[in-house]
Amino acid sequence: xxxxxxxxQFMTNYPNSQLxxxxxxxxxxxxxxxxxxxxxxxxxxxxSDDSGEYPTALFLKGKAYVGMKENESARQAYHQAALLFxxxxxxxxxxxxxxxxxxxxxxxxxxIASVVQIIQQYPDxxxxxxxxxxxxxxxxxxxxxxxxxxxxxxxxxxxNLAEVDNVPQYRNSPLLERVRRDYNYxxxxxxxxx
Length: 194
Description:
- There is one protein chain.
- The protein is 72% helix and 0% strand.
- By secondary structure, it is mainly α.
- The radius of gyration is 19 Å and the shape is elongated.
């Protein structure tokens, strides 16, 4: 709340500042932290599409829409952020958030398309481990794409990247224990291996 107050005061006192768009983003982030998603969207709408902050504004709009449980609008914002600005630091995260929403809404095919795009276009990004894990979850849980063997192989690939190939983003991933647990579960339940 204090940040909202300070950022609003800055905007009032310096409406023509070169930091206007950056301040607007921070104001929107503050609103997101307090679950004031409509207010966040109102701020993000103030950033024009020719601003250098516009790609981040699109990504944050996706977060605001998720907070409002408007998944289709969130997916559209994330899609624009990833499609229009593939070199932006949030492009891979936008694809990841789209994939999560697709999985949540029962559209495994689109979720897989998004994670494959992350793995192919952003293999060294911080979201690559999340994407690979999410691919396994799609094949483990999606009603149309369910393929436990594929899920097991994906989890095994993740574990190999972490433990055999020693790839840092997999070795240091906060998901590593979860992947190990999910892999062992599939081994035990479906493949009678301990």
